[in-house]
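Students often ask what a holo structure prediction actually looks like on paper. The answer is less mysterious than it sounds. You provide the chain, you provide the ligand, and the output is a string of discrete structure tokens encoding the 3D arrangement of the protein together with iron/sulfur cluster.
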Amino acid sequence: MSSDHAHEDAPPLTEDIAPGTAADPAVGGPDRATVTVDGVEVTVAAGSTLLDAVEAVDTADSVPALCSYDRQEIGPRSECRTCMVETEADGIVPACSHPAEDGMAVSTDAEAAAEARDVNLDLVLSNHNLRCTTCGKNGRCELQDAAIDEEVEEPRYGVLDDREEYEPLDDTSSFIQIDRNKCILCNRCVDACNDVQVEGVLRMEGSGQDTRIGFQSDAETMEDSTCVSCGHCATVCPTGSLVEKGIEDATTIPLPGFTQKNSIGKSVESSGRSKGPMTPKKRDADRCESGDPSANGSTPNAPAAEDVADDGWAGFEGGEWP
Amino acid sequence: MASIIAAEGPTIRISGAGSSPDLLSVAADADVRAVEVGSTGVPALEPLVTVTDGDETAFHTACSTAEMDTIVASVAAGSDVRAAEPDAVAEHDPDTARFPAVDLSGLGGDRRRMLGGAGWRRPTNPADHEAAGGFGDPGPDAVLAAGEAIHGRGWGDICQDTPLTPTWETVRDTGGDPAVVVNGHGNPADALLLASAPYDVLDGATAVADCVGAEAVIVYASTADERAVETVREAAAEHPEGSPAIDVVAGPAEYRAAEPTMALEAVEGNHRLEARIRPPGPESVGLHGQPTVLHTPRTLAQLSASLRDGDADATRAVTVQGDVAAPVTVELAASATLADAVDAVAVDGEFKAACVGGRFGGLTRDLDVSIAPEPLTDADLGTEGTVQILAADRCVLEFVGKRAQFAADENCGRCVPCREGTTQLAELLRDIYDGSYAPEDIEELVRVMDTSSICAFGVEAGRPARTALAEFEAELQAHADGTCPTDSCPETVEVT
Ligand code: SF4
Ligand code: SF4
Ligand code: SF4
Ligand code: FES
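The corresponding structure tokens follow.
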């Protein structure tokens, strides 16, 4: 746990970091490789993915690659699947995490790959609070860019817009505001916090629709977490999910009465305790230690977690649940 | 302990969990040789008491303590095995190490080569296993040769429906510190093998370990399958050879935990289970980053049967469940059909359809399909080795709706096509009740889940809906028009 930070002779912090993500293999190709993308040959360095090749040429179709970051020690998470391309050897694959190997042929405009990118982008939007006008990342949001580039007019599955379904805004920290309704679960913040800053604050937790970013210390709010306010998570976040406080309304369109905060309805407010130094000392070391790692991940414990909507199949009797 | 195979004088076997201690004590009081063996896979016949004397075995199904008294008295009096009015009698080789073929539903045929020890040998008794030709030392070349012809069984196997040898060669060539993982999570036949014939599984696993140079075999199973976990643990402790070391790990009782990379995550101790991206797959970067072979017990039991008697890849274990009196696991020749499997159960009501191939199997009315992987795949059915029966009063829309909702609730949450796709799929199916039936939208969504999900969970999650669209178009359309043909969801159907 991150509380080990306080001890001089503690083992390296990374050993205890539990980001809640799978131990992925390294994904780059083993050697320098020449790949054909839409008929154009391109040579990429050892350790490259197909996305490196795709990005090096002017492709037939655009490939949003929404969750890809691929700098520092961040990603690929390969979860949004808006980077699907067709390969001769392996069929349809995600470019961002598929190793580039010599002689591979990739096409971006194959019908099935284009369909997968398109549907997956709509699926990302289906679980997104798309109130761009009150969002602090309006105009500098990668999801917005992708949706504009792909000319999404009416996403086929709609967007998250039912007030009952919103997770409350976490406005407790003096430095970072979290709006999980805008999170695309790209995991960049988790990697930034754990692998780059080695702070071990953030993690991925839950499963299915309850999957969310949370805290390794089992804290419920940013204020109660062990965050040192370095801000790296907000820097890498592609959407308005993590925004530095003070600029959370910087790019909103000034409509009287509408702000990012009241656009959702509910928010969790600061207890007042976290006001103070820019980098509040990590506190409650024993809180972290008592965090039972086995509790990691099964049930998110945010205030809104209980608001699971009635699934509509509940009324059925006699149907044996498999 | 001596082997019970071909023992002198009569032997009573008590098969099936639960009531055996009572039955066993009846025999102990009369000083008659009786042993507890594992389940046969046909719980409807259990407790199943068999009396073997020389080349004859008598079968007493669903045996009560009173019947046991009669059986034991008859054996003690030295009577013929037929004297105690058995339900069936079979003749066999007096030294048979496998459950003899008998004309009882679920136990017929002569194909019990993989499940042959189940109900016949004591699961954790090495002498019984040795007498059955077990604990052989086949050598890497024989193993590599056998693996060419065997295809991996089950979605928990990294060689699902593909030959084993190329994967072993990758593991060997990758170097490092290879591991062998036995993935016994989630499939009834796998749990049965671990609980009733664990040495057949371990023989396969140690043969693979020797072949790829692995020092460790890890058996992984669900905490929900207590008997399997306990039995294989005991069997590992009694295993005569020290090397490789055998460890048993119980993982969470969640459906997704059987997915091979999530199995590795669970074995490594990650409490939040999500799939790993691949390539590279576990055969190059697996357990703790080392090259890893991961097979299901069914695959490994096939391997050890094939190493013992040749005749590779010849049978399939099929579990029939759903609207049936009692679920059954049978072993059939690969040329058998789904109908042969269904013959082993009593369907509860009139047969309507079957969901073939696991939770996310395909729906079919036609049972005249061979249980081999290719014909199943061609019919858009799954190869997981389960057949779930839907009786006539079962609503197909309700069934596939629940499967979609299950997928939405139980996925790992990692990738968009599965996490969000299953949620939207459940929505699209629910919309049918509101009169909006959009088959093209469902097909498009399911296609994308299939082509772009990270793991088999998302790839297969849409199959029940996809096959229902193809097979039960009229029934789905009827819901959109406001009626449920099976009358099982009347209140819910409202057309606006
Ligand atoms: S600001 Fe806090 S949560 Fe974000 S990266 Fe830094 S320490 Fe981690
Ligand atoms: S908060 Fe931002 S960086 Fe973190 S997972 Fe969500 S979208 Fe990605
Ligand atoms: S397909 Fe489903 S279970 Fe598999 S990685 Fe994706 S979200 Fe997880
Ligand atoms: S960019 Fe490849 S999956 Fe998101």
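The pocket of iron/sulfur cluster (ligand 2) is lined by residues A 183-189, 213, 236-239, 241-242 (CB under 6 Å).
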